[in-house]
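Note to self: keep these together.
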Amino acid sequence: MTEPAAPPLPREETLQRTAPLKGELEYIIELVEPGTRVLDLGCGTGDLLKALQERKRVFPQGVDIDEEAIQVCVSKGLPVYHGDLDEGLADFGDQALDYVILTNVIQVLHRPDFLMREAARVGRRVIVSFPNFAHWSARLQLALLGRMPRTKRLPYEWYDSPNIHLTTIRDFQELLGREKLRIHRRVFLRSTRDGRFVPVRLWPNLLAEQAIFMVSRD
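Structure:
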């Protein structure tokens, strides 16, 4: 991959995106096969890539728009490039990677459907995680208080939120159907009182705070 000739300036909404759950990254790491080629889109300071490199011996690459975060990645020895995800992945060929990962990124993009198509083009598998806007706590705030929800996973006020395309599990699955993307794995998570994150088995669109999907074009 060649570095963009004229990289765009960092956007504030990308710098402030919702941080991944500590337990969420463990579930994502489990989905990745050892020794594979992995591209982390919106990789931040490279915590996930570094963990995958050390524990799964993957060949990591990352893309982020935050130059300070990229410098942190470089200091960790990770190959990370500057790029605006809303512009796509033109520097990557078709099926060039084993996994493309998007952790809490799609809701801050201007064109999440476009990037999903791009990710499925360049990766054999795409792993996506996002906060579920249909969680019961968000519904309750809208229904009883008539206010935009603020939750542990969505802590922002409506006027300063980096999230411009919030979605629910049901909405996201409908998008996958329209894009003809096949679901291989789904993991739904909720937090416990002692701070752990555990899978949700029933009614995930109501009870899950976070969703993880692994999908592909085939």
